[in-house]
Sequence to fold (315 residues):
Amino acid sequence: MLTRRHIRVKVMQCIYALIQSKDESLEKQEKFLKMSIDNMYVLYILMLSLIKEMHALAETHLQHASKKYLATEEDNYPNPQKFVKNRLLLQIAQNSILQEHITKRKLNNWYLNADYVKIIHKEVLGSTFYKSYMTSGKDSYEEDRQLVLDLFKNVIAPNEKIYEYFEDDQLTWIDDFPIVNTFLLKRLKKADGNERESYFLPRLLKDEQDLEFAKKLLTKTLLNNEKWEKEIEGKTPNWDNDRIAEIDSIILKMAICELLNFPSIPEKVTLNEYLEIAKEYSTPKSSIFINGVLDKLAKEYKTDGRLQKMGRGLQ
Fold:
């Protein structure tokens, strides 16, 4: 689920948090890093469970509607039960592994904040996607999947109330939200109805090497902070340290650390990754500045033999 770029961003966030808090405890930062990575998976589970709870509310809504004496809009549809019997929604709603995660982690967020589920349910019912689906007269997994994709992209993921809720709950979720939504959307797109339950609950990290990479990158960047600062000073004679934006300084230090301490990661991968991170988290001018500094340093490290790379490497 998490790529190496996501992991690099997590490390960057940890270092930034340490600087802001002026807390020099490396142990605390390692715990914060692990918690931040774990919380990203919690966010993924919560987004899936939001779909699950929305489906449960739709079922309850349909049951109540069937007991009313006056006709509702649902009664005008050829098959009022079509939405609650949507195959992809049922795969999520009836997923026992998802329920195990929710129970084990005590994620009762939507039970305690049911209004958010009601907001999503109401917007779903009022959407053109829902109305078109309910009146199409078709019946296929492809149509079921397309509806869920349309609703997720246009109703659920961009909902401001949901975003505000997550923003208030966990600060790191602000950056995680688009990553998680993009990953979940890709997962939904590839669903074909024959998946195992575990398909919707993939591993957060590919393997233990990813977690070790994160810890090592965090530790070596922080413990060699003064060393990396001197490296930067040598390539920015017209810049005082105070003039270099905090986030730019962190990105440069992490990139230098990775170039010199991770021989299995190709130089080109490191440079490209941090340039992309700079483009996303810094200013356009900063990314040009960072690219220039790293390019000079990489050439220097090659010349003096400090840049030792081996094998095809990882990303």
